[in-house]
Design brief:
Blueprint lengths: L7 H6 L20 H11 L1 H11 L1 H24 L10 H11 L7 H13 L15 H12 L24 H8 L5 H6 L11 H14 L5 H20 L7 H6 L3 H8 L10 H21 L6 H18 L9
Helix pairs in contact: 2-5, 2-10, 3-4, 3-10, 4-5, 4-6, 5-6, 5-7, 6-7, 7-15, 10-13, 11-13, 11-14, 14-15
């Protein structure tokens, strides 16, 4: 009994164990940092950027340089205004700048990219508290602002570029052309990207390559693009069956416009999309459904930006709807 008796004085001098209490899950991949996810997105965007440079040449260089530099400057400026450490190491501002540039038409004036970048970082992210706190995709907030404020300056057609590898910059976008004249673009041109439009939306092949990479790396949740593509296939198929003579098939809906670019690189923003796998798929279905509704029934056929922002606003509600039920709960 003597050996088993605990000395109270010794016990009082022994420091109490530190117990960390936190909600589950308690196992996590420590390598999945914000910086790693953002760098994966940059790598995934390489095929899209390469295709934009091939088709639009100096226009693409200009938009990428303006948007990236403006986003980095805006990030540093707003961090200093709030008295916070410079957050450029996480590469989130870099990703915002690239996606914003790829969402703009090449001939857009320089001030459009600058204003869109400051709105994206300031109103889309900093005003909510910084990265991880924003409820809307920052790049789409900036894009929506300049779309409303400078609608005429964002017209993609009517510009001449002697350095362009194809005569894409002088054409109207395939969706606009079909909406206005009924002319159907070849599927091969839509798939490869030899058409006009925003820098990142023209090549379905480049978006698929980069997007699949992100899903394999788990830097993007596959449920979201799966939902977007599923909704586009179903509604596009119905529209195709309802008007067989139009020539615009379900594959045209899938490859045309920025649907695939938005599905893989915009809607998958982890800060503004739902948390659960079921919620992510519902979110993707909503984005794809709204895109198709805007294409079929509105005068604005490229509706990915508005679809994503609308579903961003519904993300808290989707999270509430899709709370996982604990094992054994009634």
């Amino acid at each position: 009994m003597t050996e088993q008796t605990i000395d109270k004085a010794t016990l009082s001098e022994t420091p109490a164990p530190v117990i960390h209490v936190s909600p589950s899950p308690h196992l996590a991949d420590q390598s999945l940092t914000t910086q790693r996810i953002m760098l994966d997105v940059v790598i995934g965007l390489i095929p899209v950027v390469a295709m934009a440079l091939f088709v639009f040449r100096l226009y693409a260089v200009k938009q990428l340089a303006i948007s990236i530099v403006s986003c980095l400057v805006a990030e540093a400026l707003f961090a200093k205004m709030r008295g916070r450490e410079l957050p450029l190491k996480d590469c989130s501002a870099l990703v915002t700048g690239i996606i914003l540039a790829l969402s703009l038409p090449g001939p857009a004036p320089w001030y459009v990219g600058v204003i869109a970048s400051f709105v994206a970082i300031g109103i889309g992210k900093a005003i909510f508290g910084g990265i991880g706190m924003n409820i809307f995709n920052p790049a789409m907030v900036g894009r929506a602002f300049v779309m409303i404020a400078f609608a005429s300056a964002l017209a993609a057609s009517g510009y001449q570029d002697v350095n362009s590898s194809v005569d894409a910059v002088t054409q109207a976008t395939p969706l606009d052309t079909f909406k206005q004249t009924g002319a159907v673009a070849p599927l091969s041109a839509l798939f490869l990207g030899l058409t006009n439009g925003s820098l990142g939306e023209t090549s379905a092949l480049a978006c698929l390559i980069g997007g699949i990479y992100l899903c394999i790396r788990r830097s993007a949740s596959w449920e979201i693009p799966a939902g977007v593509i599923s909704a586009a296939l179903v509604l596009g198929g119905i529209a195709n069956l309802a008007d067989m003579d139009s020539g615009w098939t379900v594959l045209h809906h899938l490859f045309g416009g920025s649907l695939l670019f938005g599905a893989f690189f915009i809607a998958t923003d982890p800060c503004s999309s739902p948390l659960t796998p079921r919620g992510k798929f519902i979110f993707g279905l909503g984005v794809g459904g709204f895109v198709m509704l805007l294409r079929l029934f509105s005068g604005y056929p490229a509706g990915v930006m508005f679809a994503v922002l609308l579903m961003n606003s519904l993300t808290p509600l989707i999270n509430r709807w899709t709370i996982p039920r604990p094992l054994g709960a009634q």
